[in-house]
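User: Hey, my collaborator sent me this sequence without any context and asked if I could get a structure. I don't really work with proteins. Can you help?
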Amino acid sequence: MARRINRQLRRYITSEFSTVDSTASPHRQLYQAARQCCYDEEQQLWRAGVDGPTGTEYSVLLNRGGGLSIAFQNEYQGLPEPATHHLTLDLRTGRRLSLADLGADPPAQLRQRLGAAVSRRLRDELAHVAARYGDPTVIGHVAELYRAPQLERHARPGPGHRYGRE
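Assistant: No problem. I've predicted the 3D structure and written it out in structure-token form, which is a compact way to encode the shape of the chain:
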């Protein structure tokens, strides 16, 4: 079982790199990933990462009921990547679980529910921006950052709202 879980973790780590030979030994795969990331062929020396991740922080979100869920955040040249990646494994089989495996809903319904939840969260965040700043330009900018201009109309300040910080 540990071998299967380690294989899933290794796949996650090496997925960033194109030169990793998936048929090589685990040690060799990790070496290939490190070399692509951090070895200068011309100067023949190791350096702090240039093309790939230089570190990974992780936290265990769940470790019970036969499931292990881990959140990863990569660092590139010492700077954290804004995205967090997740890996959820079935500890009985070592198989990587998808969101559909974890939910009771069929995939289409799950996508619809998640989309609605994300839309609600974005709408609430834009309403917060509208309440705090009130400036339609700021609201439009935030909506554009979220790539959600359709939510902008939900965040407009009410009548009598004063523009600017309060």
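In plain terms: The first strand starts at residue 39 and ends at 40. You can pass these tokens on to your collaborator as they are.
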